[in-house]
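Deliverable D5.2: sample structural annotation.
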Amino acid sequence: MYRNVLTLVTATLALVDAQAGSIFGSIVPGTTGKLGDATIISNNIIGMTYQAVLPQSTTTGFRGYIIGSSVTNGTGIVFSTNIYGFSDEAALGPFRKVYHIHESPVPSDGNCTGTGAHLDPYARGEIPPCDPSTPQMCQVGDLAGKHGNMTTSPFQATYLDLYLSDRPGASTFFGNRSLVIHLSNTTRLTCANFTLLTSALSSSSGLPPASTPTTAIPDSGSADAKVISGGVVLAGVLALLL
């Protein structure tokens, strides 16, 4: 009997290993999009800030936000990420928790499947995985691939992404798209739309009016709520980058 149990356990582990290999794959240096490498965005609109706030879902403990803002030289977008509450997802196993910008907004029913695929205007595809040492060869929306997976709760990171745009109409524009958090086996856990938080443009620009930054978001280390202002969160970061 014990031999049969051991055989079953061994077979199960082999299956898990095989599945993990097919899901994760291996980085293949030099893999780029069918349309070439992503281009550094140097004409972003100065003074634009977008945020995505995760919903108060009853099906997952994930909470938090990501804020993206342009810098004064117009090159790239600075993202500030604070995502937490996913220790209860440990039962999901060894799958990594990743996050991406998806090509479509979250539909009105909140179904994350409706966000479509990753933002990928250069047709790079998800396989093989992104090589973070060559971010220009990654999917434009693959934030985890370029800047790191979520490995701790809270997950807090600030970084400059050179390949996303805050200019409406650009194929790399992220302001009308969505943030999706899922496992590396593609299970989608939660999602949120990016919305305009602050804008340096007048209403004649054709952009929607900026929302007043009064969204209450629980602090990662406290049950209290606080107001997140994109300008306050990013001011110190921008000062270091300029």
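Annotation notes: The radius of gyration is 19 Å. The CA atoms of residues 18 and 136 lie 30 Å apart.
The annotation will be released with the project's public dataset once the embargo ends.
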